[in-house]
Amino acid sequence: MSENKEPQADPATPQGTKFVYDFTEGNKDLKDLLGGKGANLAEMTNLGLPVPPGFTITTDACKVYLDSGDEPAALRDEVSAHLDALEARMGKRLGQADDPLLVSVRSGAKFSMPGMMDTVLNIGLSDASVRGLAQQAGDDRFAWDSYRRLIQMFGKTVLGVDGELFEDALDKAKDAKKVTVDTELAADDLKKLVTAFKKIVKKEAGRDFPQDPREQMDLAIHAVFDSWNTDRAKLYRRQERIPHDLGTAVNVCSMVFGNLGPDSGTGVAFTRDPASGHQGVYGDYLQNAQGEDVVAGIRNTVPLAELERIDKRSYDQLTQIMETLENHYKDLCDIEFTIERGRLWMLQTRVGKRTAGAAFRIATQLVDQGLIDETEALQRVTGAQLAQLMFPRFDEHAKIRAVGRGIAASPGAAVGKAVFDSYTAVKWSRSGEKVILVRRETNPDDLDGMIAAEGILTSRGGKTSHAAVVARGMGKTCVCGAEELEVDTKRRRMVVPGGQVVEEGDLLSIDGSSGKVYLGETPVVPSPVVEYFEGRMHAGADDADELVEAVHRIMAFADRKRRLRVRANADNAEDALRARRFGAQGIGLCRTEHMFLGDRRELVERLILADTDTEREESLKALLPLQRKDFVELFEAMDGLPVTVRLLDPPLHEFLPDITELSVRVALAESRQESHENDLRLLQAVHRLHEQNPMLGLRGVRLGLVIPGLFTMQVRAIAEAAAERRAAKGDPRAEIMIPLVGTVQELEIVREEADQVIAEVQEATGTELKLAIGTMIELPRAALTAGQIAEAAEFFSFGTNDLTQTVWGFSRDDVEASFFTAYLEKGIFGVSPFETIDRDGVGSLVKLAAEAGRAVRPDLKLGVCGEHGGDPESVHFFHEVGLDYVSCSPFRIPVARLEAGRAATQSRGSDHR
């Protein structure tokens, strides 16, 4: 509700707006208006199933209430009319003294938000009607217990009384009787408790508990409306990416009671096992109880199958209803029911949540049963679920306590000895040790250690920090931003909460799916899905399980349906081969800077330090055969598929030693009067190349224009490698990508030089080479002038990581740690724009550039190679915009393939949130 908006006595609403629907009037397709619960109650009513009569107040009424501060003017009269009809049908009035009608008031938004919003049961009970209920039920204890529950729920939910006060009073009553559970309190005990609860309400709320049943109902309705904007509800919506403007419906339903004796009870049923997807009778039942007793765990439930022995008639009716609902919804259904003295009532149904494995199994089972087709099956699973299945996990039965928790940056389960620098990680790994690289944060110099490690743990950073991005690309488990862990790299130790010290060499276990950190070794369960994608397990083989078979079939559906091709971000032959096994249709991004690290760093230093053309040419000449060898291996691994090679992109200072470390070395050498000429030249070069904001400085195409011969050396290596592969009867399909272009003139100059080099290689080798030349669109100006740039480019690849940085004005390495958490909490972001593409800002530029480029060059190939290429939601956007392919890390290829298929078959009617 706006703080500056005065409540209106008569909120303006469109003439003829209907705010209340009887359960007989709605259907399951009206979730936007009636919420999920109300729509499904109406659907079950229409199916002739035993649903307690009631009505639903629409989300439109909630929106008016939240916007204006008051309910719509027509709402009270509509509620009165529907309440009159309900009373006539039930043959009793709300809260009447002798035989009261009682109702529940429950929330029910479009998307399930379990426990986030408010519910009040037993409305209509008062000092007068509680005795009528006792007489009607023939059970004093039941009536007074129901009254106690109403005051407790109403006081906490509607009047804002601290719930602990009621719990304390209940505990005192149990202590006085020397019992441990409230079901052992007698009617007289509960009468006294009612009196105590009313005193708590009077003292804390400043008013008496309302005795007027209509006042109870109206206040409860308003409380449910208000609960849409509680902190917990808003936090849940942000987490689940549920829009904040939907509002909640309110369901007013006549009460039925499962706590009327041994012939009554309440339970939850699933039409299939939500954990495995197997068909059968799954659920729990509790005799002589209300639904809240099952949730609260007051007493142990029995398996639903036990109901057949307890009440076979109800059991048979329930199983028939379960079959009806599953066939009707064509999916796993989650059902809540109550049995009141042998009579079965259906209180709720919804498409049930399920594990990732169950989702894939159920989708294929329903296809086999003829209930859904392959297109719909694709809408029943998600890329996020597939990702869950691909990573190893810790054994859920292992008993071990987490000592810290960070951001779940890259899924998986990793166990190893703690090491605190990359050198040690590589050294220990080579000697056969499994290690966890622990750092405050990582940088490009840590790459070797990250490759060697089983997993990466940092005390700083977020999901798009260096550690997270690189780890996901390599399929490494990573937990970032575990701030409660004190990492001391100098002393090679880490202190966990409570003061326990983890020394280098101590065992750690990190869970990249939950962000939890454990001391010691936790058993890991491998993923058969990854074994399938890597070709170590074949669908249909004797050793393949049902899950692998289901994944195989769903992926086949997706590949047949999708339009988007899926490439890989891969920098070496090993990653390229893995990507092919995972279904990559080429390489969309080969980052050549990774080829300059390790043993070649000295050659790069010589290039940077070169004072003369001769020195520079010698350095480039030494690098050329190494680059050529890299590309030969890559083209061989991806034979017959396109390979997009990005020319050198990062600032040169990244290839030089750290300025502080180098300064110390020079100072020490000078103090000892030792020779330090090379270090001094390096230090001078570092100072010369130092930039305040290197990501917006001398990098990308600017490097190729400023350092003569750098890009032409790389182009020559690519062309010669392609010629060598053709001579070996291979089919190399190289594409040369110029990074960070902001104006067409930059591209034209580099292209002219590249074309000349390619022509020279063709003449020297006698081999015809068809090397496409294009550019990355990663600057706003490039996107805005894409029509001009397309005249010199044969393809665009959108570098959405840098494009997001430059559009938002964010430094990705800094902002997540400084203010992203606050932005997410305040709802400014629903999700990090580095994780899922910002459709309105960055996405608009992508769309504009795509359209402008193709207007000039209709055959312009369009792709994306940022982190967004493997993000499920972003893949759907790229499909809509009309890109030709997405490129992502090898381990995300199956996810992108699946989502590309889902995007091509997206059904607006499907919603399995």
TrEMBL record:
Cofactor(s) the record lists: Mg(2+)
Start and end residues of each PEP-utilising enzyme mobile domain: 433-515
Gene3D superfamilies xref list: 1.20.80.30, ATP-grasp fold, A domain, ATP-grasp fold, B domain, Phosphoenolpyruvate-binding domains, Phosphohistidine domain, Pyruvate Phosphate Dikinase, domain 2
UniProt keyword Kinase, yes or no: yes
EC number in record: 2.7.9.1
Segments traversing the membrane: none
Residue span(s) of domain Pyruvate phosphate dikinase AMP/ATP-binding: 75-300, 308-357
PROSITE patterns: PEP_ENZYMES_PHOS_SITE
Keyword match Membrane: no
Signal peptide: none
Gene Ontology molecular functions: pyruvate, phosphate dikinase activity
Keywords of this entry: ATP-binding, Kinase, Magnesium, Metal-binding, Nucleotide-binding, Pyruvate, Transferase
Domain (PEP-utilising enzyme C-terminal) ranges: 549-901
Enzyme class: transferase
Name by which UniProt lists this protein: Pyruvate, phosphate dikinase
